[in-house]
Amino acid sequence: MSMNAKGRPTKPETSNISPQFGSALLQEEGLLHEVGHCDKTGVDMEKLSGRTSRLGYLERSEATGMVGLSEPEALRHYVRLSGRNYAIDLGLYPLGSCTMKHNPRLNEKLARIPGFADIHPLQPTSTVQGALQLMEELSHWLLEITGMQTVALSPKAGAHGEMCGMLSIREAILAKGELEQRRRVLVPQSAHGTNPATAAACGFEIDEIPANAEGRVDWDVFCSRLGPDVAAIMLTNPNTCGLFEPDIRKIADLIHEHGGYFYCDGANLNAIMGKCRVNDLGVDAMHINLHKTFSTPHGGGGPGAGPTVLSSRLADFAPVPFVKTGKTGKLQLVEQLNDAPDSFGRMCAFHGQMGMFVRALAYMMSHGGDGLRQVSEDAVLNANYLLARIKDHLSPAFSGTCMHEALFDDEFLKGSGVTTLDFAKALIDEGYHPMTMYFPLVVHGALLIEPTETESLQSLDAFADTLCELANAAKSGDQERFTQAPVKAPLRRLDETKAARHPVLRFQENLQNT
Amino acid sequence: MADLYFTEEHEWVSVNGDTAIVGITSYATEQLGDIVFVELPDIGKTVKAGDETAVVESVKSASELFAPLSGEIISANEALEDAPETVNEDPQDRGWFFSIKIADKSELASLMDKEAYDSFVQGL
Q1: Are A128 and A64 in the same domain?
Q2: Number of structural domains in chain B
Q3: Does B89 touch chain A (CB under 8 A)?
Q4: Which residues in A99-254 belong to E strands, given as ranges?
């Protein structure tokens, strides 16, 4: 047997591995532990001689339990798995509230320019003036779109941006000496699920405002909850019902009158960009998901980025670092709190997701101001086209038009024995990624569909036809097609309940199928 | 014999003397779907009516259980931590969540009896 000096054999002595998965060109794939083996190594290297460890008693003596694979084995494992992925590059991805739009390849090309791709955050700023200029330019566009005073680029995702906004609000309240008193944050039911989590993480108490029958903030309840102990309201607009809050300006004025601040969740900016400026709506802080509105990849395709815009009421409290023009005209990064005495501090080591900044600015500049406005218009048009095509077959949660996403309840499935989950699973058999389901919680058995502006008329029609056909099949009693679905996917219906009740978080050799 | 009361949050409250056992109704379990996780209150904790007291997580969502009455938590059904499915299987008996030593029996007036709860559910 071939083997390295004293290490693992390149061929295991006992092996029940069957490296063959699948048949024809349909690749099945096992777990890494089933492809490789702990008694095997993929690299055959001589053990180093004359080496003494400086780890002492910390040196590992027992096996790691890691499997050994050769490079082609490892490569094939991941390439096989990737072939079973569903992605925006394969088809329509209607996840509501996620804005899964096409990621233009121009963005990718520009993000790979070595001057942006190969720089290091600790390089002297004199050597990265181009990158800093790009951050300045991006900030300018974000402020132009929102009308706000300043922007913190560093937050790494939407929820991180929420935290940035809420920490700015907290700092502003602290500066007024009111932090002891202002403990309550109002969060409407139609807000994103992360909003109450953010407020709680920032040390506030959550006060939930119910939605009215039209899916908007219940005005009377909102008014009754105001008081000198209110720190802020966190509102999502357009909200998770896909509806615009018509009272938003009144809500902003009232919260300000009571000394509180207005956080707007900007996850749905894709529906209003270029149509209205959030500063004009009275917003004090809003995060912007570059990975939604500005088409940078997400959902496993790349990291998020959540720049947060702040109004003049909060601008001084923005986190470091930020870009500033020095006396000689050179761009600098303000890193020290001495240079930004009112800042609430720092959220992360460096300045943010540079690669996403490049992609987002590429998207903005290739569209121009008028193009970005049309993005919003087309996103709303597409959602309403889809709504109009399917509303007689499914059951819209609210009457009238929607914004960028259309919300349905499970009324159309009543008496069919088919649930929202079954309906979503059946969509997999039809070749589509399911929509967002059971969220928002304000409607029963919710189905939330966001097609985005990047789908063509043909693509929307094909999707609408599929949804109508499925809805009719459910109503006509073809229950089995739904409760058994998916039958065409590589794996059939998974036992989600068992997975949640008894999660197995790492490979177990002889896991009994109980 | 215990008296059975209900809340609009779909909890049942079984009152025997000054002790109340609390759980969720079968209507609630149908709405929640398969329950996968239960978080119970600490014994000895004092709660006010309406306080969030336990958490129930299903495959669809996470919800809170509110204390239907004010008082002190005197026991919790720890068996649910390892077997949350008991709530689905037997919500109104083995699937109980916690019991309270009632501080103020006049609060019972704000709860519904079975008949009122049934018509409340009918109206949903």
Answers
A1: no
A2: 1
A3: no
A4: 150-152, 184-188, 205-209, 230-236
